[in-house]
Prior knowledge:
By secondary structure, the chain is an alpha+beta fold. The chain has helices spanning 27-33, 50-66, 113-129, 144-152, and strands at residues 12-13, 17-21, 70-76, 82-92, 97-105, 134-136.
Amino acid sequence: MASRRWVEPITLEGSAVRLEPLSLEHVPALINVGLEADIWRWMPRPINSPADMRVFVEAALDALAAGTEMPFATIERDSGLVVGSTRFMAIEPRHRRLEIGYTWLAPAWQRTAINTDAKLLMLTHAFGALGALRVEFKTDALNERSRAALAGIGAQEEGTLRWHI
């Protein structure tokens, strides 16, 4: 009998956003909204071209296959437009811990209800359906927008990682 993963692919839908399992079919839409340099300023690996975006999605799907990540396409619910991506990552079933990260949104959807709704859906799923004991977020210490957004949803800052990635 095949073992069941702790975090299985699932679609999560809220009032402003639908998070659906990321696939190669999302690549063209992600390219349409995700090649602006400012999106990738704080990420470990910038996306500068359509080929980079495809590699980004392929790496996410490899991590899904390995059971270490569950990537989502972030879709504006009302329009059906793909506007970014997010994922459960650093999945540790033994410790019932995971991270929400690699979150990015196209500039037109930043500072809208999309990100807050997505985080609420993911936190609710993690603590509710998955029975997680801990959900972590990491952001660059200089990324004030991200830090403010996390504070806005009640995340508690625990410290600063130095030379992490």
